[in-house]
Amino acid sequence: KTAYEIVDCDWSSDVCSSDLTRAAEILALGEFATLVEAGLPLTEALGLLAEGASNPVLGQAFAETAQALKRGDALPDAFRRGFPAVPDYVHRLVESGGETGEFAKALRDAVAQMDYEERLRREIRNALVYPLFLIAAGIAAVLFILIAVVPRFKPMFAGRESSLPWLSQVVMSL
Length: 174
Known about the structure:
Layout (H helix, E strand, L loop, with lengths): L2 H5 L14 H16 L4 H11 L3 H15 L4 H8 L5 H13 L2 H51 L12 H8 L1
């Protein structure tokens, strides 16, 4: 099994079961792109990242990718084997970068897109906090009125329910 299969990584959530965050993966892939742009051979860059990875899942993913390259696998296949859970466009960019000789640029573009998606996800989540708070506060206020305030007014209208508007009758019957 690959490192990602071991931890059962689900990218619809923010954190995988091994505490591998998207931000950590984006940073690691960005470091990989930087090493390749600096002219390091792929297997050497992958080996350095495998040894120095702060997250063991990333370290194993880089090591698996390096081993696959050393066995003679094509770059896209090796990358897919080591990083099966990254978005599909990353694999496609790696494949096109490998074919055109612009692997570092393609990987950098993939990292930029992943970073953009992560920032957008965070901004949307943050933008939804305030409306959700308002909805919860509104529900709490209505429940408070129905549970604490309305029962105190029931004795005042005892026997005169038919003279109340229909909505008030419904509220008083609760």
